[in-house]
Design a protein that fits this description.
With 390 residues, this protein is α/β, with parallel strands linked by helices. It has one domain: Aldolase class I (TIM Barrel). Helices cover 54% and strands 11% of the residues. The protein is built from 16 helices and 8 strands. An 8-stranded parallel barrel has the order 1-2-3-4-5-6-7-8, surrounded by 10 helices. Helix 6 (130-144) links the parallel strand 3 (117-121) and strand 4 (149-154). The longest helix is centred in the last third of the chain and has 33 residues, at 350-382. The protein is globular and about 60 Å long.
């Protein structure tokens, strides 16, 4: 007997959406887009789990390509056409993003270009090359050819001018790998400058979307390990608190910018805000509540992109008690100051941690890109006819 249908207005995901948080799925695969619908098909998640966007990265595509044989027909076709490995990766990833964008196009239209977005990342090996990142962002935008795409550009020092240049061309941008408040403020400035230049270039600001992906759980993983090394009761009591505090301070920085005359001028010209996006929201420590980085970061006008496990957990038992972010900046600053004091006894600082996380993030995505290339190469080879076959 089928389980009784849960009314939409009682679903945790629906309550989260009603609180103003846009739920995006941090995953994509061709299996979610083709074949008979399942509970994890993108269309099902849109209809039943209030999903209104998708983010991807090299790790996600590498995992998708390595799971099952859903890509075998496409790989066989690409091999027969003589497409090389790099070309095959581009074809497969942009095809998936294009199909997902089509699934989400009704959301994009209904929300007037706010949600219904699908992100695809620039080759992470270009993270330290401004010009190459800018060229590749424009290329991906053209290849996918969907207005509800976002191009992911890392928030490295070299990425900042590429963010501005891409927005100035009318390209919607998802800024990724943000860990520190200092870098986030630089991202906000790059975004404002890009929109100002886009207006000068004659672009319609109302359709240029942008989000700033502020990473959460990785901060606690790194900080908790250092607090455990310190080992005092006071230090241990701060475990699991740095990431949420850091994100809440990021939201306070965002509020300052959207209250500025500079933003007011862009808003009057029809621009959309660059919404904070909570990324890396899967809880890594099993001792913590599995919906921690959703429950504690509820505020209107943000995005929370969740891996499937986190989305499932929140859909089952997520808690929405209203705004858990606005007005928390002072407490968050106190928490981070205490964290920094303890980290100093370990010979480091919170700023050192966030700098290291950015460098590691770029390196991890480069490794994932190499894995994606290797998986694609193996997939192409597997489509070859057996020796001696016609």
């Amino acid at each position: 007997m089928a389980a009784p249908e849960v009314p939409a207005d009682t679903r945790p995901t629906h309550r989260l959406s009603a609180a103003g948080v846009s739920i995006w799925l941090d995953d994509l695969s061709r299996a979610r887009l083709t074949g008979p619908p399942t509970e994890h098909s993108l269309a099902t998640l849109v209809a039943e789990r209030d999903v209104v966007g998708v983010t991807t990265n090299p790790s996600i595509f590498a995992a998708a390509l390595g799971a099952g044989d859903v890509y075998a027909p496409a790989l066989a076709e690409l091999r027969a056409a003589g497409v090389d490995v790099e070309g095959a990766v581009e074809r497969i990833t942009t095809d998936d993003v294009r199909q997902a964008a089509d699934v989400l196009r009704p959301v994009f239209d209904a929300t007037r270009a706010v949600d219904g977005r699908v992100s695809i990342e620039v080759d992470p090996r270009l993270a330290r090359d401004t010009a190459a990142t800018t060229r590749t962002a424009a290329h991906l935008w053209q290849v996918v050819d969907r207005p509800n795409t976002m191009i992911k550009i890392p928030a490295t020092v070299e990425g900042l001018p590429a963010i501005t240049a891409s927005l100035a061309q009318g390209i919607s941008v998802n800024v990724t790998l943000i860990f520190s408040l200092e870098r986030y403020r630089a991202v906000l400035d790059a975004w404002l400058t890009g929109l100002e230049q886009a207006a000068q270039n004659g672009h319609d600001l109302s359709v240029i979307g942008s989000v700033a992906s502020f990473f959460v759980s990785r901060v606690d993983v790194a900080v908790d390990a250092l607090l455990e090394r310190v080992g005092t009761d006071d230090a241990l009591a701060l475990r699991g608190k740095a990431a949420v505090a850091n994100a809440r301070l990021a939201y306070a920085a965002y509020q300052e910018v959207v209250a500025s005359p500079r933003w007011a001028a862009l808003l009057a010209a029809g621009a959309q805000p660059q919404r904070p996006l909570w990324a890396s929201t899967g809880v890594k420590n099993p001792e913590y509540r599995d919906t921690l980085y959703v429950d504690e970061l509820v505020v209107a006008g943000v995005v929370n992109t969740m891996p499937q496990g986190t989305l499932d957990a929140f859909a089952d038992h997520g808690i929405v008690l209203g705004d858990t972010v606005t007005g928390t900046a002072d407490d968050a600053a106190t928490i981070l100051a205490a964290v920094d004091t303890h980290l100093a006894t370990a010979g480091t600082s919170f700023a050192d941690v966030t700098d290291r996380l950015e460098a590691e993030g770029v390196e991890k995505f480069e490794v994932s890109w190499s894995h994606l290339l290797d998986t694609t190469r193996a997939g192409l080879a597997a489509t070859a006819a057996p020796e001696g076959a016609e």
